[in-house]
Amino acid sequence: MPIAQVDLVEASNQPGGPTELPFPTLTRSHILNCSYHSWYPRYRSLTPKARLVALSVPFLTYLRADGIVLPPEPSEARQRADPLTPPPSDPGSDVWDDEDPDPSEAWSDVHVKVQETIRELGGSVMPKLNWSAPKDATWISATNTMECRNANDIYLLLKSSDFVTHDLEQVWDDVEEEEQDEENECDTGDESDRDEQKSSEQKAEEVLKGVPYHLVLRKTIPAYNPALEFRCFVRARHLLCICQRDLNYFSFLPALVPKLRTVIEDFYQKNLQRSFLDENFAFDVYIPPPHDRVWLIDINPWAIRTDPLLFSWLEILTMPAPEQIVATALQASMEGDRHQTEQEENGCNGFEASESEDEKIIYTPEFRLVNRDDPEAYAFNTPKYSAHKLPRDVVDAGNDGEAGLREFMGAWREIVRQQESEQKSSGLGKYS
Q1: d(CA 79, CA 85)
Q2: Residues 328, 120: Cα–Cα separation, whole Å
Q3: Entry pTM
Q4: Distance separating alpha carbons of residues 431 and 246, to the nearest angstrom
Q5: Do residues 411 and 400 lie in contact, with contact meaning Cβ atoms separated by under 8 Å?
Q6: Contacts with 47 (C-beta within 8 Å, 6 or more apart), sequence order
Q7: What is the pLDDT of residue 21?
Q8: Given CA atoms 34, 385, 167, 68 in this order, what sign does their dihedral have?
Q9: How far apart are CA 222 and CA 361, in angstroms?
Q10: Residues 170, 175, 177, 178, CA torsion sign
Q11: What's residue 230's pLDDT?
Q12: Which are the contacts of 273, defined by CB distance < 8 A and separation ≥ 6?
């Protein structure tokens, strides 16, 4: 990952620095503890209104399959059910051709539940899987946002997202294998050959056994402002640092930092510090005006896959612990007090006074924002997640199957050939 590479380069430039990021061992239990379905029941009252839909093996197979084939719209579905009813458009149209399969027939229970949940949540939702939201696929949405008003909007985002694919196929990357799994690998020499022979449905079923996949449908937040969403990093149950999630400059944020830091600290200490199952994790919060209520948006693994945003993982992992900072400050203060008591007749009273001052020494998490002069402040014209996007023409060709892709490639070669011919012609004219 690029983040890892940057951190390792930074580490190698430091004399005697670490050769790899000092992450603790990443376990399956930690990944599962950060899954939305795992922590949501405990913190339901702290999150925006949401519903979870358990996903079946056929639906997972659909998400993992190549190409994007969407279920028919309700009007088309009714036409399929009643073929005697003439279509509203051209009678000769093949819109309802039986050769076009309905992919939702294999997972009709999930499809119906998704439709019911959208209606229950007011007709507008924002989807995600256990860990990731398809934010990298909003380019394919008609609104260029995460907002979905029907089931097909959701399926289109999910199937177009690399983030969702990571949840489905790479969820155990960098995770330490269990001892029992390692023993099983030693006993089976032809494991890789059998894996190649497994169907996509068999592979999805194996994944489902280890991961109870859910589709999270969160009610769309009205007047949502991305500037007010923040990522918080917790190490050894100490709130270490905070930064904004949207990497653009917002002039109103610096004045809000004292209040935002206070409400986030209070929220963490009251709700997460003692109750979350792991001592290292990152969590995202949203604090809308008047900035006195904190909403828990997500909990992320303490792993390289989680974006550190305005920090680097090397910086976070090697940052002095809060208890070390407080202890150092207390020791320096007490040494100064002892020196003072040697010069005073009533040394006991002076020492008691110093203790009361020492109790006021409190660790304050760093709160980092994008400043006006930072390079990130000028990224307004840079599309987010551009590395995960494809031209719409390519997507449309993929929707038409292999024939569509062949036609697209032929057209593309012809365009390239014409451009090369024009360049050669213009070159001859210039130098003749």
Answers
A1: 7
A2: 54
A3: 0.71
A4: 51
A5: no
A6: 40, 218, 295, 296, 297
A7: 86
A8: positive
A9: 40
A10: negative
A11: 97
A12: 237, 239
Any bridge partners for residue 155, and if so which? none
Q: Report which of 294, 180, 201 is spatially closest to residue 239, judged by C-alpha positions.
A: 294
**Average of per-residue pLDDT across 234-242:** 95
**Tens digit of each residue's pLDDT (9 = 90 or more) over 129-185:** 999 999 999 888 888 889 999 999 999 999 999 999 989 988 888 888 655 444 444
User: 252-309, pLDDT tens digit by residue?
Assistant: 999 999 999 999 999 999 999 999 999 999 999 999 999 999 999 999 999 999 999 9
8 Å CB contact between 268 and 296: no
Q: Cis peptide leading into 301, omega within 30 of 0?
A: no
Query: Does position 118 have pLDDT exceeding 90, yes or no?
Result: yes
Asked if 344 and 350 touch (Cβ cutoff 8 Å), the reply is yes
Q: In Å, what is the CA distance from 311 to each residue of 117, 163, 243? A: 37, 21, 8
Burial degree of 155 (CB within 10 A; 0-12, 13-18, 19+) = buried
Q: Encoding tokens for residue 200?
A: 């996509």
CA distance 173 to 171: 6
Q: Judging by beta carbons within 10 Å of its beta carbon (0-12, 13-18, 19+), is residue 339 exposed, middle or buried? A: exposed
Radius of gyration in angstroms for the set of CA atoms belonging to the chain, rounded to a whole number: 28
Torsion, Cα of 241, 246, 247, 249 (10° steps): -100
